[in-house]
Write a structure and sequence with these properties.
Length: 307
């Protein structure tokens, strides 16, 4: 079952309009997350909103937003004032222009969404817009209002639907000059480039996401499972970095090392995540009785062991 749509409205290209729904294309809900606890009692930490000067707790109805002018000066902005400047959602993604994918700087990309027809009507109009983009190899640039703010969105065909990517405004992107100005201009010799190209060719492949594993996430799950099982935790030795003294020598060693690894590597299938495994290996001992725990189902924790 697909998640609930973040936004519903209409997609419009000139006089062609169709009802659409916008869904988040990514999720971090299955990542391991932690709560803060009181070491002495094991109880969760509760945060209270307090006055920075008096230390007294402040009720939600007495909390307003403020823009910081300097250290001790704030401009108070009320909820009503914010509502007055908030953009009214037109419930329409209006396509303003069409651009080549290569023209969009990757720094402007924020996050992807799936765009689908909403309901039984509008599939024909949706298909016309999708296939026109596919045929002409273009991205449609439009605007959408989410949470009272207007966002730029780039639409492109994906299978039977569209993928919409929110884009940043220019003021949100930092100039690279202040970071790159101090990088030295280095003359790279042909021999170095030839050796580096050889390494690239040895490691050439195709992007297959299933081959990659979040090693930190796996290590966190292993740590939690070991602690639940009451096993001792031993610190692993961390690899040490090496200083490169001779770049040419390092490139040659990289080539010979990569060749040796390839020759000794057994053929194996791409490692895939086992879907549906969301419980840890063992229940936590000494907590709530089984009946009480069953009455209140705990949040599932992914255990992502390899299949």
């Amino acid at each position: 079952m697909a998640p609930r749509a973040n936004w519903k409205g209409f997609l419009r290209l000139s006089l062609v309009t169709c009802p659409v729904a916008l869904y988040p294309a990514t999720s971090e809900s299955e990542k391991v997350s932690f709560n803060q606890l009181n070491r002495k009692t094991g109880h969760r930490i509760k945060y209270a909103k307090v006055d920075a000067d008096t230390g007294e707790e402040v009720a939600n109805e007495d909390i307003v937003k403020g823009y910081k002018v300097d250290t001790d000066t704030f401009i108070e902005v009320t909820k009503e004032e914010l509502e007055n400047v908030a953009l009214e959602s037109t419930r329409t993604i209006e396509i303003d222009e069409f651009v080549d994918r290569s023209e969009i700087d990757p720094r402007y990309l924020i996050r992807p969404y799936y765009l689908t027809p909403d309901g039984k009507v509008g599939h024909d109009a949706f298909a016309v817009i999708r296939e026109t983009l596919r045929e002409m190899n273009k991205l449609a640039i439009g605007r959408v209002v989410l949470t009272n703010r207007e966002h730029i969105i780039a639409l492109e065909p994906m299978d039977k639907g569209l993928m919409g990517t929110l884009l940043r405004y220019p003021y949100e992107v930092r100039s690279a000059d202040e970071y790159f100005d101090d990088i030295q201009d280095v003359k790279v010799t042909k021999d170095m480039l030839d050796l580096a190209r050889h390494i690239v060719n040895q490691k050439a492949g195709h992007f297959e996401p299933d081959k990659f594993e979040d090693q930190y996430e796996t290590a966190l799950l292993d740590l939690i499972n070991q602690k639940r099982a009451g096993k001792p935790i031993t610190a692993k030795e961390r690899p040490r970095g090496e200083n490169v003294v001779d770049l040419m020598d390092a490139l040659r060693k990289s080539i010979s090392g990569a060749k040796a690894v390839e020759e000794s590597k057994p053929a194996k299938k791409a490692r895939k995540v086992a879907s549906g495994q969301k419980e840890m290996l063992m229940p936590i001992a000494g907590k709530k009785p089984a009946k009480e725990a069953a009455a209140k189902k705990p949040a599932a924790k992914p255990q992502r062991k390899s299949a």
